[in-house]
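Class, look over these structure tokens:
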Amino acid sequence: MRSSNTDLNTEVCENAMVLNAYPIGVLSVIDNVNGADEGWSRMEPSVGLEFDTADDAREFYTQYAERVGFKIRIGQLYRSRTDGSVSSRRFVCSKEGFQLNSRTGCSAYIRVQKRDSGKWVLDQMKKDHNHEFDSAGENSLPTVKQRNHSAKKSSVNVSHRPKIKSFADGGSCPSGVINFKRLRSSAGEGECIPEPYAGLEFNSANEAYQFYQAYAEKTGFRVRIGQLFRSKNDGSVTSRRFVCSKEGFQHPSRVGCGAFMRIKRKEFGSWIVDRLQKDHNHDLECQMGANKKTFATSKKFIEDVSGGLDSVDLAEINNGSIIKISQENNIGSAWYRVLFEYFQTRQSEDTGFFHSVEVDNGRCMSVFWADGRSRFSCSQFGDAIIFDTSYRKTNYLIPFATFVGINHHRHPVLLGCALVANESKESFTWLFNTWIRAMFGCHPKTIIADQDMAIQQAIARIFPRTHHRFSMWQIRAKERENLRSMSNQFVFEYNKCIYQSQSIAQFSTMWTALIEKYGQRDNIWLKEMYEKRESWVPLYLRRSFFAGIPIGKSIESFFGATLTAQTPLREFISRYTQGLERRREEERKEDFNTWNLQAFLQTKEPIEEQCRRLYTRNMFKIFQNELLQSFDYLVTKTNEEATIVRYLVRKCGNEDEKHVVTFSALNVSCSCQMFEFEGMLCGHILKVFNLLNVKEIPSQYILHRWTRNAEYGVLRDTESGFSAQELKALMVWSLRETASKYVESGTGSLEKHKLAYEIMREGGNKLCWQR
């Protein structure tokens, strides 16, 4: 390939043809442009080398890499804070990072920085690699015969690699190890691919991956690269998982399929299948060959042209097409028109209505909205919230998510809704930021959300002091997947450790014993779950306030069956309104019952009468149940130090159930941690109160959020946590909510209208309103 404007040096090496034209005036050290031993062809990178442009530096490093025997990728770039221009660039070894199975975490790189003169200077570098070099090395570099200073800056690298072959037969190698290079696909119809089985060996992890890919194409599914596990000693890869493309729930096409093949590295470098799950939870495709060529082309494009972009971070191969997650949008364009029409209607009716749209490169992405009542609800019940993304359990049509709190009747209350464009850290970060902005800076004490890394990272960034609890449905799914190969006795002892431990020390002891007894020290999943124990083990969760949301149960969706991820566009708004109104009607009924129906007392204890007067009906029933149970407890004083006294509380007839109550003049606590978790005193403390003749519960143990005065329209006496502007907004919403009840009731008939008008006018006169 030649041009009249350039003098290119061409050499064909096996299947690769490399054409290079060298740029003008790159290095000041190049004096003899005709000598192959001078200039770029023999130049070693060193700190202080100077280039005209960053592209010149990349070209230099590319040629150096070809000579040594490795490939490069473009790494990070850094921009000036002043004008946003690129101030430095990194060029790295193609095996940097771990996102592809071909990468080894190599740290070799050069960094060039732009000086005030406009030149680019190599200021940082590392030459050592942690992998072997290509054997081609020197031979792959064309000989420089002549350099023409009038040549344009250009570099073309056309690679013709041998195509990946499938299996022609299932015959094994003499050594019992599958050598993928010896297996060739046949053009006929008699292709036979061996079934994977535990104990099957390969020469390399790449051969195992290619084998599983070929098996998947024959069977009717696609493969993704799953987790890899590394040695603690030297960081080398010790095992890899290849999973069905429908594993997990992070994408609309995924259904949580559990099929996978895991390989483990043996002592002498070969790899063996040590775990295998063949069963799929979805229909298999009867013909996969049609997409094979497109898939291979896309894969090759990702690895070679794009410098190895990976499905984990930046791209995913889906039916042969490349989807960049940063631009992915799971919301159909028609949804925005429908939602915006709804938003305009609501804003004309509710001045407290809030909505926001994420914009990426001029395109609408995620959408968040909350009405005035939801925003006011957050001031009362925003301490413990649920970020519900249950749409991810199935093949969803719309990525609908909700923020839900628990109200004073212990019922769910809506705190905002969203359509999530994609499940990236950036999308969730934007969404949580927007929620805080809508809720006047409210930061919850606790949040229940999925375990996915993108959500974990967004929560850690936006809610740094919030206790993140994992969704139970995800924990259960992970347990089914990772414990299915364990014995029944292991599962029994595992559940006993998780759910019956009475203290942190006891849990740690039982967990360690369990791991040692069943030889699970190298189980990566168990290690990870132990590290995250504060986000899912009940003993750790009970130390934080979760408004009594049960730990061992999955949480019902706020909208239930009224609104699901399969709801069609034409019905979404009507069903959303219907579901929201149904929940709010339930709340109105509970408010009515609380104020108009009186619960029966079952003891003569003064604290029972006190709590009946303060709590809502539902919360009083919970308290009353604890009070009645307290009569079945026995109390023994165990320790007394100054003003602090400890009591052992046991249940009659059950020696295993015992808790320690610590009492002082200032506070009281119990080892069951019911008050910390639910905001309600337990029967153990109530028994100690009875023993000490305490007739009234101290005010700090009556949470305002559980009282009947926490209803909409009533603010607490002090709102020290809010600014003057925020407090004014809360008062506006509070009065508006109360007024709306008069409007709703007063429009039922002319007589009711007159009555409501008189009441409001009388109230206005008391406030010294003027006509």
